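Query structure, 330 tokens:
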């Protein structure tokens, strides 16, 4: 039996990961803040040990690391705007550095770092990229992507210092249990007719259960120092919103919106303080990213980790039905 520590366990991916880990013989501890919302862990609290702390607090991380064999570092701030630069750096970069430093000091056997596809790069045209691509997301000037890239540099530094590390890069994650409406915001807003147009880019879609399963396999079988893209089908936003419309029964989103026109429209909406009827997803940082082709080749994870594949429509339907059963779509 191993002693496992999970950071970010109250989030979408982290809570699903914990759900699968508690089914193993290992002893599972989770690092949580004293004011954390534990609702995502309901039904699992009697099977885990809560350790209070914060990844941004090095001392609390060091205390949590005592006696730990393996660490799943899932904690991170996902924010696609431009108003939380300092917080993004503190959580995503400094937090990762604290976890890695304490793991080295405590003799942890391996750290599995959950990164992001934004730390991989942007496809040229529509050709999917793999783990070997040179990071080029700085062209979009998205602070979230920059901090996830910097966090991976911290992982590389820890590897050079002797820590056994593996990185996974999940794509756009859908599925049941997304209570904070990460990717699920798109489902909710299409359902509520708050998205009158779609960006011209595309995205790689993956189900949260596949992500959690593959993270565990990467801890067990991933090669030291390697990173693995956890992705599924590459679809345009047009295809994605059409699928959501079909599943939810909402009208199709008919208007394509190029980024240059989005900037003009956003300026007009802000000038006249028009906010009703338009999704909160419509901010220029997010729309700039959504105008790119974030298409990824996940064959390495398929080949080395045995990652399973399923149609992305299944994940969209699973998320929609989960929301509908809980009356969360209004």
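Result returned for the query:
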């Amino acid at each position: 039996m191993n002693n496992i520590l999970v950071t970010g366990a109250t989030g979408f991916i982290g809570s699903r990961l914990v759900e699968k880990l508690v089914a193993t013989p290992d002893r599972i501890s989770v690092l949580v803040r004293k004011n954390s919302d534990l609702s995502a862990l309901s039904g699992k609290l009697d099977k885990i040990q809560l350790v209070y702390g914060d990844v941004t607090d090095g001392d609390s991380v060091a205390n949590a690391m005592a006696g730990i064999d393996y660490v799943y570092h899932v904690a991170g701030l996902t924010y696609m705007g431009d108003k939380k630069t300092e917080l993004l750096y503190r959580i995503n970069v400094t937090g990762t550095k604290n976890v890695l430093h304490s793991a080295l000091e405590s003799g942890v056997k391996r750290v599995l770092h959950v990164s992001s596809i934004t730390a991989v790069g942007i496809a040229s045209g529509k050709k999917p990229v793999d783990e070997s691509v040179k990071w080029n997301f700085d062209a979009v000037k998205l602070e979230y992507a920059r901090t996830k890239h910097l966090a991976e540099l911290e992982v590389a530094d820890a590897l050079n210092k002797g820590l056994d590390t593996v990185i996974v890069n999940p794509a756009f994650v859908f599925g049941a249990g997304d209570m904070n409406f990460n990717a699920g915001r798109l489902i909710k807003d299409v359902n509520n007719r708050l998205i009158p147009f779609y960006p011209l880019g595309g995205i790689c879609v993956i189900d949260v259960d596949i992500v959690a399963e593959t993270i565990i396999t990467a801890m067990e079988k991933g090669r030291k120092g390697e990173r693995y893209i956890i992705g599924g089908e590459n679809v345009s936003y047009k295809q994605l919103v059409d699928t959501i419309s079909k599943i939810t029964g909402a009208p199709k989103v008919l208007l394509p919106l190029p980024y240059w026109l989005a900037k003009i429209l956003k300026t007009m909406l802000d000038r006249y303080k028009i906010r009703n009827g338009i999704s909160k997803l419509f901010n220029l940082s997010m729309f700039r990213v959504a105008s790119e082709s974030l298409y990824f080749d996940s064959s390495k994870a398929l080949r080395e980790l045995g990652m399973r594949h399923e149609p992305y429509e299944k994940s969209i339907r699973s998320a929609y039905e989960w929301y509908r059963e809980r009356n969360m779509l209004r």
